[in-house]
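Q: I'm building a small set of examples for a reading group on sequence design. Run inverse folding on the following structure and report the sequence directly after it, with nothing in between.
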């Protein structure tokens, strides 16, 4: 049973016509990061890089670096840069760092510092 599960995981990781890049534990809330990722999902990489360059959001620079990393991964797989587009782009919740803030009468209120996991997947356009 364990070997079947391992075999299934390796099949999903090895795909010939896709390139992937993952950024884990980025210290910004997923809600804010999704605004930027939604703007580039489904675009070709030239348009996506232009959108990220002029986006007025803090998450734009790390996502731009992540996209450049995915482009480099695609180049290593032998894919051509001109025909690439962002097929999947997702932002998932990461670990939440819990802090405390002092409040009235000796109480403490929770502060949740959220993190994000960002995944970009590139495919060749047909």
């Amino acid at each position: 049973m364990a070997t079947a599960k391992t075999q299934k995981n390796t099949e999903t990781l090895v795909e010939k016509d896709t390139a992937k890049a993952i950024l884990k534990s980025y210290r910004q809330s997923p809600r804010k990061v999704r605004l930027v990722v939604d703007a580039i999902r489904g675009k070709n990489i030239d348009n996506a890089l232009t959108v990220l360059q002029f986006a007025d959001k803090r998450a734009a620079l790390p996502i731009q670096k992540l996209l450049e990393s995915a482009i480099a991964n695609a180049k290593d797989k032998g894919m051509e840069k001109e025909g690439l587009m962002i097929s999947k782009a997702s932002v998932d919740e990461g670990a939440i760092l819990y802090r405390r803030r002092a409040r009235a009468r000796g109480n403490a209120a929770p502060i949740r510092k959220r993190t994000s996991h960002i995944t970009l997947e590139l495919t060749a356009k047909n």
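The beta strands are 18-26, 84-93, 97-102, 108-113, 116-124.
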